Fold these 4 entries.
Entry 1:
Amino acid sequence: MNSIVEKAKNAALSAAIHQALDYLKKDPETNIPKLMDLVDKLAPDDWYEAQRSAFRNAIREKNHWYELIMKVYALDEGVRETFFRNFILNASLLGSATQEETARRENCNVPWAILLDPTSACNMHCTGCWAAEYGNRLNLTFEELDSIVTQGKALGTYMYIFTGGEPLVRKADILKLCEKHNDCEFLSFTNGTLIDEAFCQEMLRVKNFVPAISLEGFEEANDGRRGEGCYQKVTHAMELLKAHKLPFGISTCYTSQNWNDVSSEKFYDQIIEAGALFIWFFHYMPVGNGAAPALLPTPEQRTEMYRRIRAFRGSKPIFSMDFQNDAEYVGGCIAGGRRYLHINARGDVEPCVFIHYSNVNIREHTLLEALKSPIFMAYHDQQPFNDNMLRPCPMLENPEKLRAMVKETGAKSTDYESPEDVDTLCDRTTPYAEHWKPTADALWNGEHKE
Ligand code: SF4
């Protein structure tokens, strides 16, 4: 009975949102403020009050958020509507309700997003990346990818993010997956070099695929790591995407070397001008036997990243997220299926894209069994790993937690090439954690509270 009531409520919500979007698309500049007035009159006072108030301010002041909203409205109509339906309605509103219900019933985490590597292969040979050395030996078949998405949807997960290797080496299967699961949103980390005119046409056809292009900084830094001419290829890909009114974002890993460039106003302006709608920042993670701890940002550098990203959030028309310093918005570590999990190209189900330890493989276990596996349950039972949201990670900032979890659960290394013992990894991150702690505590209890 409950599920009939839920279904009716979902159908009503879905219809109301479709109607609102239909109304908005006719004249967004005039109709967004009118719709917000209506929402304010009808919604209870405490219903997403902070978000509604930020949205109202954006409209009143016609500030950078408003500019971003208008950019979304300038996207290809079919792609934009599919994004609203798949990302906002299916993945976030309806999906979250199903995820919560499943999590309660099964007493385990259920993710909002699943990250998966269709392949370990890559078309490039970047310094320090294992994919080039490991070649294309490992792939998830189309049937396996399809099965993961089908199982995920049954749990309420409608957001799928490709990692790798270079996912677009498998572009035909990725497009087939987008087509088959047209109620899901697919995002892909990519080096951008395989995005061409034909692929843009395919994106317009399937409508539910969004690339996040990796950039390490300006031309010199980028080509230094990825090879000469790479930056120009990426620039060309962004021009094509923009010309076709297709959404895309940037993904950046910050290190002790490039942090100043990638958090500069010049870099922000450049990617905004290129048409990026979002930028995701990742703190360098010293994982694997070939890791380079010297690339870890110092406490001063990380603090500056924290400050600059927050400052630009208040002035630039781009949605930015710094996964290591923004944990407060998601209640700490999101891994272990709490918000996401990762499945590598060999099928190992890992709590996080950076945590290469697992008890289960998707070729032998269901997704739900993986969520109930020992290391996932250890995440479930122990999150958040720290009350200070500037120290969220069980590996980077609380290495004693990962060390204990891996040992207690018997999770095995999933590194294909060179298995890494958890003690080796945690011994490497311990000095960083100790060094960052006083700065993080001062920042969290001081500047952040203010
Ligand atoms: S395990 Fe660490 S890197 Fe992964 S989501 Fe949690 S906090 Fe982030």
Entry 2:
Amino acid sequence: MSKYMQLFQGTSFSSKSPTEIQVLRDHLYCINDDGMIERIVAPEDAEYASLLDAYQGTDKFQRLEAGQYFLPGFVDLHVHAPQWAQSGTALDIPLYDWLNTYTFPLESKFSDLEFARTVYDDVVSTLLANGTTTALYFATVHKEASLLLAQICASKGQRGLVGKVVMDDPEQNPEYYRDADTSTALADTEEFIIAVQELAKTTKQGVYPVVTPRFIPSCTDEGLRGLGELAAKYDTYVQSHCSESDWAHGYVKNRFHKNDAFALHDFGLLRDKSVMAHCNFLEDQDAELFADTGTAIAHCPISNAYFANSVIPVARFHAKNVEIGLGSDISGGFSPSLFDNIRQAVISSRMLEDGVNPSLPAEDRGVPDSRITIHQAFYLATAGGGDSLSLPIGRIQEGYAWDVQVIDTSIPSAKLPIFDEHEDVHDIFQKIMYLARPEHIREVWVQGDKVHSR
Ligand SMILES: [Zn+2]
């Protein structure tokens, strides 16, 4: 009897709700041929013993060791794959200067497919090693190199959603790095969409094309309108940046006399499959438009500390039913780890709530009710990301993909401070959230396939 492709036994953590953690102790996770969690069986369930009897000792069975736990794989909603090559550098200047001084020259080098392969191979492997099983990527303006990134995701087993970036406005973009013209930008995007949809048929976990205007300042009206039409025609994901910094927010207001959100909506770019990065400066009506259209926010807390001139009011937008996930925003954010971004999301929200200027009286210093908990930040990195993409990922739950990371709290070189074998698992969960590093991630699985181990 081997009805299931695989059977796992162990304790898992997953979000029950945005504020609560579900702990399944010593459960069995039954994975079917499609890599989906078909059944989860509790120890007190009658079937538990017979399933163990049937699978134990076969190569379809894996039991976690003491000190090991399953977490859902992370969903990174905002990664600039080419910028991995400059991660950790150039964080000392404002967004506009950062783009023109460092980022555009780097991205222009991805016309060279060999250079692109070197960087893209490494960034996909690095994200997998950091527990990121699904990533929403900006590539560059180059169609071939963007397709190469999708192919690398496909072959390494990561669920990659990849966008060929559109920057078609000759007034706003340097001559050495932009689309040749608007019609070429749209034709390249359409060819890219078709090629990735073909590639997807060869994968188990799925890869997806994403319509990707870099942000409004880099695109013409005609380009933005054409991209909205392509997203509708092929029913694709859409990603861009929205209301990130004072400069970006102000630019769109000057050009369209409305906020980013409404301008993007006018071009057909706010859809259920849309994810907009940052969104720090959304006003209430913008957030309501996001909720109405199903558009999600990619919250990038580390990057925001450098480039967004503000802390996003996550709690306020969540209360308005806007879908929110987490993004590393490599390389505006220096870290490829969503663990690091979970921590920063909590820290930033605490600073927003309390305020940061000690010369102000306490009651004027902060924004009340802004803090989020570590459980909420974990939700953003997992279930919130899955919901943002409308995919069955980010939860350890029946009907979801077996996208998991195996966390080992007891590796000798980086043992977590757990001294009592009966320590409350909720405390263990929090220690993992705050202290885990890539070396604690022993295995990563996507859609039932092991894609990383150490
Ligand atoms: Zn970005």
Entry 3:
Amino acid sequence: MRACVVGAGPGGIVSAKVLLENGFDVTVLDKFQQVGGTWSAGGCYDGLANQASRRLFEFADLPNRLHFAGAVDTQRYLENYAETFGVLDRVRPGTEVVSIRPVEGPGRPGASGWWIESRPTGEGTADVRRERYDYVVVASGAHHHARLPELPGRAAFHGTVLHSNEVRAGTFAGRRVVVVGGGKSALDLVTRAAGEATSATLVQRKVNWMVPERLLFGLVGYKWILFTRFGEALLPRYHDPACVRPVDRIDDRVKRALWWVITRDMLFSAGFYRLPKQLRPDRALPFHLAHAGVMPRGYVRAVRRGLIAPKVGALEAYTDQGLRLATGEEVAADVIVFATGHHKVFPFLDPGVTVHDSAGRLRLHRGIVPPGADRLGFIGFRQVFNNIMGVELSAHWLTRHFRATLRTTPSEQEMEEAIDARLAWQERVLPGSGGYDFGPYDIHCADELLHDMGLPSRRVGNLLAEYLLPAGVAHRYAGLTRSDSTGRQVY
Ligand SMILES: Cc1cc2nc3c(=O)[nH]c(=O)nc-3n(C[C@H](O)[C@H](O)[C@H](O)COP(=O)(O)OP(=O)(O)OC[C@H]3O[C@@H](n4cnc5c(N)ncnc54)[C@H](O)[C@@H]3O)c2cc1C
């Protein structure tokens, strides 16, 4: 059983590990020179730091004690993981996948396997290498293909225009910087510009929620509230009835009252209360939590000291000096950085395999497999807050799907119906999530995959610990596989 994993980021290396344990002959192809994806050299903007506190950014079988670590240390953890579990030897770095096509044969696309075409990164004229695999895992990253808004007047502006992924050491020094966007990357970059640039301006259409490192007026780390089963029970009910527990049936009035308290705490603990009203999020929690990152250190202070000039409003056009806002205000810039997100696209994938709907939302069953194709799965496109834990559980689910050992295998029509129902729920409770972002539903998402795998979702014996200790953490899911008498991993 030959399997190809496209991408050696966290999703790719954990998929490779689980597939190897289950007897697959695995090859991992990545266009970068290092494993680690977003966290590898050049994988994201310079200065990227992890938003995860201790024991959050880790896989079940290898503890990670780093606390809000930098990208270099995070990459080292991932490389160590790949080496420890025999994945590193399977990685072909500097190899870009340019096409994935089904091998022709009876049945649905992929039933007879897949052709993968690849070539050395950046060598557009190099010969393409064609290989046949029985299974393919696409782990090419949800944050890989830059999304920039189309604005009129680009030719008039002679300064530098970058996507956030392209910011490197020295990009800001001595220049007037405008950062466009309202998410974690935008706030990170404008905070950095405040210390390095001649001027730093932030233009955001709306102010997003940011999670503070510590909640309850700075007393407890966010994972003790947001990553517990009790905390998740305060969210609107999860779409899959198989994952709804009695605690999820808390009366909506009680939920609303508790969110009122959490909202005040978030405003206070994240520092929003110290900012002018127009720089505070104006939408009710928990909706839009999916778009929240962890509030970067220094952002609030830099705004208060006047080192960041924040503007809230839409963009209209480039000018010869920078940007014009819809209000008519002009902002001067030498460098414009668009921290405006990423397209979830797969330019190498056979056009006959449908993975998006007409609105551009991903249509994957469980956020992992396309209903119309066989022996093909996507890892990293069922995003939760603790994405690392999420990709590990998804890798287990996909491996069992490939081995046809899930509790049930729904038909194509049943998958389509399940996707429709889930997308309708996402639109309601996580607006703008693009069909891939499950935001704060870490534990419910885990429950759903475990339920499909026929594994217990209850991970600890003590009921209080089950509900009140952080559960959206990988070490709760250690030991999902074990060795049988032949040394083969079984569930
Ligand atoms: C600004 C920012 C901050 C973030 N902060 C956090 C955080 O604090 N904590 C957290 O858990 N997550 C964070 N994330 C999410 C982050 O993406 C995940 O941590 C994780 O890296 C996702 O892993 P992945 O394997 O799915 O994708 P990636 O890490 O993106 O890896 C994808 C890999 O696929 C490769 N690839 C793509 N196309 C091809 C191709 N055609 N051929 C060959 N290889 C290809 C890429 O080179 C890359 O190595 C952040 C993301 C961003 C953008």
Entry 4:
Amino acid sequence: MKVTIVGAGAVGASCAEYVAIKDFASEVVLLDIKEGVAEGKAMDLMQTATLNSFDTQITGTTNDYSKTAGSDVAVITSGIPRKPGMTREELIGINAGIVKEVSSNLIKHSPNVTLIVVSNPMDTMTYLVHKTTGLPKNKIIGMGGALDSARFKFRLSEALECPPSDVNGMVIGGHSDTGMVPLTRLATRNSIPVSAFLSEDRLNQVSEDTKVGGATLTKLLGTSAWYAPGAAVSALVQAIACNQKKMFPCSAMLEGEYGLNDICIGVPAIIGKDGLEKIVEIELDDAESKKIKESAEGVSKTNALLEL
Ligand SMILES: NC(=O)c1ccc[n+]([C@@H]2O[C@H](COP(=O)([O-])OP(=O)(O)OC[C@H]3O[C@@H](n4cnc5c(N)ncnc54)[C@H](O)[C@@H]3O)[C@@H](O)[C@H]2O)c1
């Protein structure tokens, strides 16, 4: 399994580190446009190989796509992150051009690649990749829901005063402060609905904290977060590499599912060797259906800014 990560910045490097530590890929190529950065991070990571006991070969390159040839999976983390006070949508002007160019270069050298889109605004960048690359729809996955769900589970564990591993839950909808739909109704602690332990007010607080999870970190760090994003991407890469058929909320191109068409937005999906193998349609209650429609309207507005 060869994995390429374009954008050896904070999220890209963190993803490379988690992929290497889990030791399921033979090769990771980091590519960046900034001279020497990908080579330097690859070398630094390789010097952790004996300490962290992995055999994955990590190499770096400055914009030489021939080094990415034959990649099975490629992660797109290239582009600018938000600064405190910015929305993800404000990044579209710069990131759309980068994502379009990067995805086209990747496919030229790896025609059978599965792309994982991370750059923000992620749902719109995923839509852009669908519209401009001609890759089959199962080969384009937008990563947002895996991260948002991990943040949701962490917030629930805080409220429940229990370890995060006791908690299960999902966030669907757009990957934005206003678009996320945390499914509190379906979240559980060891199969018991969380509503058995937490008041409606506390659950609403958990939802609100989850939705601004990224913004909260951006304010603290001065730039957007990278550990949980990197770990979330690496979990998707692993699900593909190891054909795990795991369910993650991912940004998928919808053709009628959830009553939506011609839009990429977070829905539960099965991830395995063929990429996004299946969209899982779950029954939403009226309030959840209304929220996902509103979320889709927000994503569509951002999509309309694309010059396709
Ligand atoms: N989807 C998510 O859940 C999620 C989570 C966190 C961050 N993000 C997004 O991921 C992106 C990366 O975030 P980051 O914190 O790693 O940023 P960063 O600035 O640390 O890294 C971005 C890297 O991309 C490189 N780059 C820019 N243009 C390039 C090009 N044309 N080709 C190759 N490399 C190029 C830059 O040189 C830089 O090293 C941002 O858009 C951010 O908003 C998404």
